[in-house]
Design the sequence.
């Protein structure tokens, strides 16, 4: 319950946070009365009816102002993602914030869900809820989002990876492939490295080459996440290449273009460059390396569900090898029982 304070005049006043205006200024509601109980009563009445009195702006204007206000503290790629999400607000951009309810938002979400992936819809709805929290704290929606679907990845085989490495040997693309497959670096991290990051055999990951909100590549002294700051122990043959200055000098977009060209030229079945990080995590799990260390090496957060649910896939050849072990156990058990039955009188 709001508490009133006595003013020099003898009256009592209660101030309650209302919202943030378009310039980012916090706005408060003030209630003054002759007595403490009256002032607190007015404030309580307003608080109970608060959901019908949010800022009188449209959803579209609120989203635009929110993105503008956060531009200085969020990464350029996040702002760029917000701008992409903003294009999907056409259906509700003229809706007043005071009219945002489950009933007005659910049809919009259902319409988006008919055409877009669950992840895209989730990101778009996430921007809306962030805006509501910023302008109208306490707003509660019970919108039904599309169900999460599990993606299955066909990881490249060891043979395909080795074919690709042999084809690109001596090039910057080979360096990128080695860093991704054996050290789990992202494209953005690979393209931001330079010779100053290598000290003896320790490579420090501390920057990222990313797209800004205008679609231009920039290098920032901040990797994707805080856990992405890491030091990696490099061994030969990659160490010798890096010591000779064989770093990647182009941006992630060019890296992808050269990668796909190499796939085609080498005859390797197409796959996404990022899947090399999946192979890294899969091999780490297969070799019994604890998730704690895998997360540290790959720049994932500790106890990351992403690491366990997405990255620790298995190559089909490794899966079949494990299945063969189980089949062997099954056949041994079956043969033992069969021989026992056969010898019985």
Sequence:
């Amino acid at each position: 319950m709001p508490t009133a304070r006595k003013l020099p005049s003898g009256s009592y006043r209660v101030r309650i946070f209302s919202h943030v205006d378009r310039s980012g200024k916090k706005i408060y509601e003030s209630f003054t009365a002759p007595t403490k109980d009256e002032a607190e009563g007015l404030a309580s009445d307003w608080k109970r009816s608060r959901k019908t009195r949010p800022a009188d702006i449209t959803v579209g204007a609120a989203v635009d102002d929110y993105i503008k206000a956060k531009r200085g503290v969020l990464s350029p790629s996040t702002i760029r993602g917000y701008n992409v999400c903003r294009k999907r607000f056409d259906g509700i951009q003229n809706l007043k914030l005071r009219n945002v309810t489950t009933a007005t938002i659910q049809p919009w979400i259902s319409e988006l869900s008919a055409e877009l992936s669950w992840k895209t819809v989730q990101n778009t709805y996430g921007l809306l809820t962030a805006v509501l929290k910023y302008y109208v704290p306490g707003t509660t929606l019970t919108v039904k989002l599309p169900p999460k679907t599990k993606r299955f990845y066909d990881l490249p085989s060891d043979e395909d990876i080795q074919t690709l490495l042999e084809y690109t040997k001596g090039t910057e693309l080979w360096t990128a492939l080695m860093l991704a497959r054996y050290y789990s670096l992202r494209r953005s991290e690979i393209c931001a490295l330079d010779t100053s990051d290598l000290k003896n055999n320790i490579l420090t990951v501390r920057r990222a080459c990313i797209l800004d909100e205008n679609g231009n590549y920039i290098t920032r002294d901040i990797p994707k996440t805080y856990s992405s700051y890491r030091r990696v122990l490099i061994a030969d043959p990659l160490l010798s290449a890096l010591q000779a200055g064989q770093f990647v000098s182009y941006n992630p977009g060019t890296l992808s273009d050269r990668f796909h060209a190499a796939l085609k030229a080498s005859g390797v079945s197409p796959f996404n460059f990022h899947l090399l990080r999946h192979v890294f995590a899969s091999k780490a799990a297969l070799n019994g390396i604890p998730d704690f260390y895998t997360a540290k090496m790959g720049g994932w957060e500790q106890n990351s569900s992403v690491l366990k649910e997405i990255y620790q896939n298995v190559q089909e050849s490794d899966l079949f090898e494990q299945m063969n072990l189980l089949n062997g156990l099954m056949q041994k058990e079956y043969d033992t029982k069969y021989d026992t039955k056969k010898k019985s009188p």
Observations:
- The mean pLDDT is 85.
- Residues 316-343 form the longest helix (28 residues).
- The chain is about 50% helix and 10% strand.
- Residues 172 and 246 are 6 Å apart (CA to CA).
